[in-house]
Amino acid sequence: MPRVNSSENMPQIVEGSLMTEDGRRSVNDLLDWLGLVFGFQRGNVENQREHLILLLANIDIRNRRHEAFSPLDSGTVRYLLEKIFKNYQSWCAYLHHESNLKFPPDAATQQLELLYIGLYLLIWGEAANIRFMPECICYIFHNMANELLGILYGNVHSASGGYFKPAYQGEESFLKEVITPIYQVLRKPKLYIGRGMHEDLFTLLKYTLFWILLLISKLAFSYYVEEILEYSHVPGQAVLHRGRHRHGARPTTSGHRINLLLWCRSSAFREMKKYQKDFSSWCGECQREKKVRQRQCLDTTKTAFLRMGGP
């Protein structure tokens, strides 16, 4: 597709000659350069390159009305930059920090915009479970964007042909030096029931649930609690409460297990017609009541018929 081809050219724009410390020329690709400088994994770089190209192509398709091949519009990159960093700008405003999305007067604006976007995507792609903490992602980007500005526009400018020292050493250095230490801190507290709860939080939750359930039981189930306690039940079978003959929705213990008791159609399900047939099939009391109603209905019909046909 021509529009995708025009987007593919965008990450390959590198101003000047960026040199590594050993004098080798870096590849002419912004994502590869970021991966080399900050130590991102090669697979992550390839994935985010494709991700960035598709994002730019999709935005460009919506903004263009002709099929002819043309360079990618600078407004497309600006639109993607504002959309991706909307949460980061809110984070900076909330903490009263100055944003590190800075554009020096002599900088190539479009190239720097792509570098910021690529850096954020590479951080996100390698953040693992930390990506579910957007504030942490913003914090990591905030510091790495400052390092990026120091490398490009610090003591040694890229256009001067000098050398710079990469901030991280090795292909997996970002994962080992940034992500892993943060993850170790997050998983250090003792966890319970696989929900990520600290011991104090879990204890507080237990007490809160206990008192809430106790209050609910007193308010909602007080009118039949005594009746439930008067009857025992067989494991695996529901308790039949005579009189009201409700199958109470209340847990009771039997030996070493807990049986959940169901409600009869005559109480909770009296408005739910679809349950009447199901409950009457296994509730003996309900079956007897059903037969009584059937006999009463037949007697009433017979009496009315005899009156109509009488002398």
Automatic annotation (TrEMBL):
Organism name: Vanilla planifolia
Q: Which Pfam families match?
A: FKS1_dom1
Instruction: Show the GO cellular component annotation of the record.
Output: plasma membrane
Q: Ranges for the 1,3-beta-glucan synthase component FKS1-like domain?
A: 111-208
| Protein's UniProt name | 1,3-beta-glucan synthase component FKS1-like domain-containing protein
Molecular function GO terms recorded: glucosyltransferase activity
Which InterPro entries does the entry link to? FKS1-like_dom1
- SMART domains (UniProt xref): FKS1_dom1
Q: Which domain of life is it from?
A: Eukaryota
